[in-house]
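Quarterly update from the structural biology core.
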Amino acid sequence: MEHILVIDVGTSSLKAMLYNNSGGLLFRSSQEYHSEVFHNNRVEQSAFSWKDALLYTLTETGKFVHDKKIDVVAMSVTSQRASVIPVTREGEPLHKAIMWQDKRSVEQCNQLSQHLSLRDIYLRTGLRLNPYFSVPKMMWLKDNEPEIFSQTHKMLGVQDYVIYLLTNKFITDWTQACRTMLMNITSFKWDEDLLRHTGISVDLLPELVPPGSVAGPLTKEISELTGLPLGIPVIIAGGDQQCAALALNVLRPGDAEANTGTGSFAIAYSDQAQFDDECRTLCSAAAIPGKWIVEAGIFNSGSIHRWFREEFYPEGENVYDLMNEEAAQSPVGSNGVMLLPHFEGSAAPYWNPMAKGMFFNLSLATKRCDFTRSILEGIALEIKSNLSLIENLIGDISMVSVAGGLTTLELFNQIQSDAFNKIVIRYDNNEASSLGALMSAGVTIKIYTDYDAALKKISTTDPLVYHPDVVDVEKYAKLFIRKNALYQSMNQHGVYDLFKEVL
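Predicted structure, tokenized:
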């Protein structure tokens, strides 16, 4: 039986997961890390945190592979997107990674808007002009760190950096490049006009390849450090959300999913590039080469749940069980408490980098359980906004596949079904991104004939199915209207502008 080692580089941890070709997980090693969040809209992380986590997890895996005498036929890498690491010719980081949540580059976005309109950039790249994406961060380095910029050989994303560590090759794929705001979304090539207007030379960018490409063989150095066999083909599977879409059966028109990790993403399949009239959804390259996904994301969702756990619950192994039990004690609507999950600004549907998170409508009767439930409801209602935008483009969505850490909570899945007013499906293995990377690699090395065959092979159990409750659907429809009204009132009256700086 063939075995594939998947490296999944998330925002909170890096995981090495060894699968057989039926999707069975034989071994898992992970290491957590944290980004540094500053009050001036900056979010950074040491690139060495990924290197350390990579070597630790691969060494653990190497021991298991050696002891069990397992043959690893390929390594597949999937990763978070839209972070930037400037490196030397030898791959040494010159600056901490500027993370995808970072918003320091608002001025660079303003500069670019003087040359190309929001609509023009959107139709070229499938993206909005926003600090979330990579090229404004690259421009910030050029404008504010000229010495670092002058020494930079390549501007890498996190996946690209890990691929370099494994293969010594500077390579990126379409699913990652489409988040830089430099790749033309219809041609899958670097856009010459954007390169010219941003001042980022094509020489600063990695080689561009389709998702599922073999980046190169595992190097002798990594083999010796970890005990993994020399020369394993390393496959660049693609962005975490695109890979998750593969494992969540988003393989044909009408398929959709909602994946909730650090942030949340609503994603639907498309045979062609799709563009919203108001530029609210994103069009990205799919993990299936030559196909697209329509995407609407939320910057913070699971990270809010984690933050609340760390700040307001005692430490303990069963703390998430306690949170879920308490959330269930609060009724639909959280006794009036409402969350706006814009802790690090808003992506879709509002696209306001200055938006802030808030708990609204508190009283002296408010209990901790109300806060906890309001987090789940606030996230679900924000995802509903994004699914509605996508439906306007691709047509009706009857079922939504869900994945991510929060979907281990039964209550959250039922809230999603009620808030969306749709059947929600959760597959047995919650690691959708890594399973998608497994599928991608398996198709590349011809273990599976295509992605449908791959999904059938790895989906060995029936998924859990959640049906919307008629009574609660009506309640969430009212809460949805109130949530949007609350945001619009805050925004239209300039409340966010008053808090751009902490007094």
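The first strand starts at residue 3 and ends at 9.
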